[in-house]
């Protein structure tokens, strides 16, 4: 699970670096579309493989714990891959 999320983060990092730049009046309208596009690899993975399965199988209290752990994994991977990358070869 962790490795698949890391792969999604690398895809997101690649997309982010393609669109990274100053926001001006011409690109302001494109920011929302770019944001949705950048999040797509992770959201596709979670929607297709995890969230519906967890919601249908887990009791409410267990689901909350599972989602907290999933959130922790996603945030740690986001931090390592996008926010504080070790070098240029991270994606």
Description of the structure:
The protein is mostly helical. It has one domain: Methane Monooxygenase Hydroxylase, Chain G, domain 1 (Up-down Bundle). It has four helices and no strands. It is globular, with a radius of gyration of 15 Å. The two termini are 18 Å apart. The mean pLDDT is 82. Pfam families: MUN (PF06292). This is MHD2 domain-containing protein.
**Measured distance between first and last alpha carbons:** 18 Å
Which whole number gives the mean pLDDT? Answer: 82
Count of distinct strands: 0
Radius of gyration: 15 Å
Proper CATH architecture = Up-down Bundle
Nutshell version of this structure?
By secondary structure, this protein is mainly alpha-helical. Helix content is 75%, strand content 0%.
Question: Could you name the key traits of this structure?
Answer:
91 residues; MHD2 domain-containing protein; Munc13_dom-2; Unc-13; Methane Monooxygenase Hydroxylase, Chain G, domain 1; mainly alpha; single chain; MUN_dom
């Amino acid at each position: 699970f962790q490795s698949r999320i890391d792969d999604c983060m690398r895809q997101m990092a690649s997309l982010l670096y393609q669109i990274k730049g100053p926001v001006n009046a011409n690109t302001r309208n494109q920011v929302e579309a770019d944001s949705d596009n950048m999040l797509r690899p992770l959201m596709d993975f979670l929607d297709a493989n995890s969230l519906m399965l967890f919601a249908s199988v887990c009791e409410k209290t267990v689901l909350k714990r599972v989602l907290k752990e999933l959130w922790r994994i996603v945030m740690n991977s986001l931090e390592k891959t996008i926010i504080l990358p070790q070098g240029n070869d991270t994606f």
